[in-house]
C-alpha cells in the first residue's frame, strides 16, 4: 500500500451531508432573510450555498490522500493549508471499522485509528474506504501481522475463542438496561420545551380534555407512555448490540456488533488496565451482570459508565467461564473477600441519607401535605447506604487485586499491581479515632485520563495491608 490512495468518491456525498447538517441554521437564516425580499432570491441563495458546498466537498476529497510506507501511515490533506501527518505503527493502539446506514448503502467502512495520545477524536479517520481496503489497511498497520498463508493452512488453524450473545439475552439486556429512566427524563424535558411553542388555547383545551377523561383513563395513558419508552429502550439496546460477538485473536480482543451501525472494535490486550462486571439494581436480583474493561487511551465512551463493554449481559455464574476463555489472567479467585468492619456502617448511612433528611425537614415545615415524597426518598437512601456498606470489599491474590464497591450499581473490578499508577490512603479526625481509612487506586483510563476506585472506611489494618502490597512491603 506504498502508493498514494484516495478515499472512495462517495466521500463527496458524505462531506456534503455533514456540511449541510453543520450549516443548517445558516440555510434557514439565509432563506428567511431573503424570502421577505423575493422568494426567487431565497431559492437562488440556497442553491448557491449547496453548489458551493458540493465544490468544497469535491476539493476536500481530491486533496486527501493516504499511504502506508515503511512503518508509517502517511496522510496528506487540506485545501488552502496543506497538512501532512505521519503515524508510526508502533504508536497505534487500535484500529476500528464502523459502518453506518450510508456506509452500508455504498458498501463502505470508516476506519478509525487510535494512538496512546488520542483525545476526544480518533488520531486519524478514513471516512470512506471499501471493506476490502479497510481490512487490508488494518492488517498492514498491525505489526503482528505476517505474510499471508495459503487458504488451506488457514482453514486448519485453530479457531479463536469466541462468545456470541443470543437473541433472548439481547432482549433481556434491553429490558433490564435501566434506560427508561433516561428516556423519561428526555421526554419530560422535550415536553416542557414543547409547551413554549404550543398555543395557550390549544394547551388549555388539551388539559381540560385530559381532566375530563377521568383518573383511570389518564393512568392507563401514562402507563402506555411508560411502556412505549421501555420498548424504545429495548429497541435501542438491540440496535446497538445486535449480533454482539467477542473473540480473542492473537494478542487482540475483537468485538463486532450493531444493526444500523456496524462496528468492528479491536482492543490490544496490552491496553487493558482492569476487567470486571457491573450489577445494576434491576439485574442484580436476577443474577445478571455486564462484563466491562478499562482501556488505556481511546477516544470514545463505548460502554457502561464510560467503560468498554466486553459483554452486554450474562449470568454472574458464567463470568468465570467467559474470562477463562478470553482473559484467563483476570479470572476471579475463590479466596474470601475482606469486608468492612461494623463501625463503618454509620458513615455510609450519613452520606447516603443526610441530604434527603434535610429536604424532608424543609418539606415538613413548608409543605407538610407532600412530606410522603421525601420520606420515601429518605427510606430508599438509607437502604442504598446499607447496600454500599455491605458490598464494599477487597481481595489480594499474589499480584492481583479485586475490589468491590457500589455507587448505585454494584461494581467488581480485577486489576494487576503493575497497572496501578497511584495509591492513596486518607484519614480524617473521626477515622483516626476509630482506626478507619479510605483508600484510592488510580489507573490509566479513557483519553489518557485517570480512572479512580475508592473503598471507604476500611479497617486501618486492612488499609495498611493494601499499602504494603502496593509498595512491595508485604510479606
Descriptive overview:
The protein has 4 domains: 11-147, PH-domain like; 169-241; 245-340 and 392-470, no CATH class; 342-389. It has 475 residues and is an alpha+beta fold. It is globular and about 75 Å long. The protein has helices spanning 11-22, 24-35, 39-62, 101-106, 131-141, 151-156, 167-175, 179-194, 200-213, 215-241, 319-326, 345-366, 372-391, 429-434, 460-470, and strands spanning 65-69, 72-77, 83-88, 92-99, 108-115, 124-130, 162-164, 245-249, 252-257, 262-268, 272-279, 288-295, 308-315, 338-339, 393-397, 400-406, 410-416, 422-426, 436-444, 450-459. Helix 1 packs across helix 3 (39-62) and helix 12 (345-366) runs antiparallel to helix 13. The strands form 4 sheets. A 7-stranded antiparallel sheet has the order 6-5-4-10-9-8-7. The chain has a 7-stranded antiparallel sheet with strand order 13-12-11-17-16-15-14. A 3-stranded antiparallel sheet has the order 1-2-3.
Multimeric state? single chain
Percentage of helical residues?
Answer: 40-55%
Any idea what the shape is?
Answer: globular
How are the strands ordered across the major sheet?
A: 6-5-4-10-9-8-7
User: Structural class of the secondary elements?
Assistant: alpha+beta
Low-pLDDT segments, ≥5 res: 144-156, 299-305
- Overall residue-averaged pLDDT value: 83
Separate helix tally: 15
- Separation, N- and C-terminal Cα atoms: 54 Å
The number of E-state strands comes to 20
Rg computed from alpha carbons, rounded to a whole number of angstroms: 28 Å
β-strand percent reads: 25-35%
Query: Could you say how many structural domains there are in total?
Result: 4
Sheet having the most strands: 7 strands, antiparallel
Amino acid at each position: 500500500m506504498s502508493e498514494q490512495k484516495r478515499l472512495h468518491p462517495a466521500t463527496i456525498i458524505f462531506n456534503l451531508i455533514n456540511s449541510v447538517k453543520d450549516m443548517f441554521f445558516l440555510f434557514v437564516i439565509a432563506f428567511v432573510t431573503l424570502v421577505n425580499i423575493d422568494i426567487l432570491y431565497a431559492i437562488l441563495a440556497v442553491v448557491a450555498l449547496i453548489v458551493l458546498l458540493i465544490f468544497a466537498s469535491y476539493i476536500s476529497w481530491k486533496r486527501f490522500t493516504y499511504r502506508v510506507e515503511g512503518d508509517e501511515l502517511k496522510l496528506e490533506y487540506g485545501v488552502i493549508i496543506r497538512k501532512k501527518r505521519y503515524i508510526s505503527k508502533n504508536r497505534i493502539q487500535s484500529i476500528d471499522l464502523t459502518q453506518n446506514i450510508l456506509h452500508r448503502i455504498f458498501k463502505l467502512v470508516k476506519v478509525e485509528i487510535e494512538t496512546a495520545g488520542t483525545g476526544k477524536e480518533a488520531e486519524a479517520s478514513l471516512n470512506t474506504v471499501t471493506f476490502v481496503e479497510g481490512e487490508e489497511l488494518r492488517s498492514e498497520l498491525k505489526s503482528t501481522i505476517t505474510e499471508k498463508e495459503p487458504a488451506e493452512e488457514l482453514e486448519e488453524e485453530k479457531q479463536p475463542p469466541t462468545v456470541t450473545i443470543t437473541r433472548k439475552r439481547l432482549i433481556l439486556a434491553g429490558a433490564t438496561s435501566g434506560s427508561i429512566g433516561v428516556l423519561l427524563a428526555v421526554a419530560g424535558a422535550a415536553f416542557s420545551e414543547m409547551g413554549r411553542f404550543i398555543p395557550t388555547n390549544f394547551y388549555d383545551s388539551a388539559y381540560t380534555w385530559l381532566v375530563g377523561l377521568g383518573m383511570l383513563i389518564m393512568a392507563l395513558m401514562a402507563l402506555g407512555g411508560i411502556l412505549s419508552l421501555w420498548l424504545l429502550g429495548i429497541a435501542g439496546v438491540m440496535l446497538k448490540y445486535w449480533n454482539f460477538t467477542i473473540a480473542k485473536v492473537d494478542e487482540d480482543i475483537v468485538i463486532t456488533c450493531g444493526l444500523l451501525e456496524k462496528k468492528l472494535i479491536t482492543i490490544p490486550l496490552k491496553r487493558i488496565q482492569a476487567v470486571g462486571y457491573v450489577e445494576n439494581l434491576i439485574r442484580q436480583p436476577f443474577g445478571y451482570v455486564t462484563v466491562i474493561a478499562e482501556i488505556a487511551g481511546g477516544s470514545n465512551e463505548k460502554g457502561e459508565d464510560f467503560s468498554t463493554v466486553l459483554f452486554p449481559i450474562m449470568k454472574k455464574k458464567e463470568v468465570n467461564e467467559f474470562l477463562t476463555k478470553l482473559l484467563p489472567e483476570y479470572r476471579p479467585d475463590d479466596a474470601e473477600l475482606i469486608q468492612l468492619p461494623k463501625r463503618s456502617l454509620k458513615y455510609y448511612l450519613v452520606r447516603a441519607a443526610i441530604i434527603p433528611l434535610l429536604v424532608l425537614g424543609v418539606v415538613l415545615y413548608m409543605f407538610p401535605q407532600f412530606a410522603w415524597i421525601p420520606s420515601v426518598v429518605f427510606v430508599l437512601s438509607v437502604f442504598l447506604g446499607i447496600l454500599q456498606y455491605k458490598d464494599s470489599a477487597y481481595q489480594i491474590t499474589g499480584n492481583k487485586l479485586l475490589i468491590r464497591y457500589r455507587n448505585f450499581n454494584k461494581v467488581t473490578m480485577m486489576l494487576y499491581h503493575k497497572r496501578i499508577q497511584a495509591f492513596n490512603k486518607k484519614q480524617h479526625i473521626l477515622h483516626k479515632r476509630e482506626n478507619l481509612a479510605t483508600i484510592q487506586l488510580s489507573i490509566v483510563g479513557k483519553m489518557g485520563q485517570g480512572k479512580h476506585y475508592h473503598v471507604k472506611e476500611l479497617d486501618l489494618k486492612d488499609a495498611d495491608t493494601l499499602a504494603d502490597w502496593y509498595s512491595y512491603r508485604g510479606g
